[in-house]
Structures are given as C-alpha cells and as structure tokens.
Amino acid sequence: MADDLFSVKGRIACVTGASSGLGRHAALMLARAGAHVVGVARREDALRDWAAEVGEHAAYVVADVADRDTLPETVAAIRAPFGAPQIVLHAAGVNTRQSADEVTPEGWDATLALNLTAPFFLTQSLVPGMRAGGWGRVVNFASLQTTRAFPGGIAYGASKAGIAQLTRAMAEAWSRDGITANAIGPGFFPTELTQAVFGDAERAARNAAQTCIGRNGDLSDMDGPLLFLCSEASRYVTGQVLMVDGGFTAK
After folding, report:
1. CATH of the domain at 198
2. Is 156 one of the catalytic residues?
3. Tens digit of each residue's pLDDT (9 = 90 or more) over 61-78
C-alpha cells in the first residue's frame, strides 16, 4: 500500500534544469524510481551525460524554457518521446547575486523570466494533457528567499516569493481537474548555484548552525519530499510550499 502511494512507476515527467544541481538530481531520482523523464536544459553535453546515466527511461530536450517565442516547439519536443507529461518539475533557475544598487534591467528581466514566468507558461501548455488524464503534479521550486531577504538577492528573492503565490494560484486554477500544484523550498544544498557558499567553509558552517538539525542538506534529503509531491501520496495536498531546509526557516 505504501509503495503504491509513493510510486511514480510508469508516470511521464518533465524536469527543467535537468543538466545540473537539484534539477539533475531530481530527474535522476524520478527515472530510477520508474518514471519516464524528459530533461530540459540549455546545455546539451550535460543533458547527454545525464541521459546516458539514466538509460531507456530518459530523453532530453535542449531548450531555453524562458524563451516564449520557442515554447510551442519546446512543448512538442517534450511530448515526443513518451507522450504528454503527467508531472512537471520546475528546477531551472538563475541567481545574478546583484545588490539592490547594482541590479540591471537585463539581470532583473532574466531572473524573473526563468524563475517565475517560465514555470507558469510551460505548465499552462502542459495542463491540457494532464487534464485529459484527470491526473497531474506540478512542483515548483521555492527557496529560503521565498520568505527571507538575503544580501545580493533582491531579484532572486522577488522571483521566489512570486513562486509561492504562483503555486497557490495554480492550485486554485487546476486542482479540481486532478492537478495538484505545490512547491519545494530547498535550504542549502551543494550545487553549482551554491558553489560560493560551500566554497567558504566558515560560511557553510554558519549556515548549518542556523538549521534546527545542525547540518546543511545532502542531495538525497530531497528524494522523499519530491516523491511525495510527485505521487499519489500527495493527492490532497495542493497550493503548499514544503520547506526542505533542516529547519532553517523555523528558527
């Protein structure tokens, strides 16, 4: 019974940002759990390596999900290998780390386009397929900065605060069709995006000390929460932000 509740076997998933970091880990984990996974990112070499590691359960699409002009072609390519996705996980993101006085229009627009706008329009394009099957899971990526202000994070923080409301609005719009929408909020995990943090041992230790558990995240800490949000186990959970941060935001 429990195995069935948390199963994604045979499901079709689309994971953006699958070329690195948490997105790559999520795409790898879902495929190993039996889902057919289409990874989407801009770096073909990294996607090719990921797909080779996964094997027959993987396909990839080289695309910029923030480019709305090419979205129809991207969606068609996502559907081509296995059919219409039932799960979409939005892990693609960027953090320019510009201070408020240094933020440029270009940096602001790029951050909002990838972190906030792309998850909406890609999901909107995939909803008809989910609705037709009466089942869907949308998982957005929130952040510690969804509720906390960090130095150099004004554009990133604005986009991730927006993700919380976007998630609630998606839930209101589509949950009656059997499509739940939730967000996962990672704490500090070692990825390409957080190299500056983990490259400074003192800073990493300070971050670990701010959690309730007393350590920073390991990538495997994401597996259970992601399986929960992508599976039947979360069928009555929608519009929520699940923080996977060791209790960082609880203190």
Report:
1. 3.40.50.720
2. yes
3. 999 999 999 999 999 999
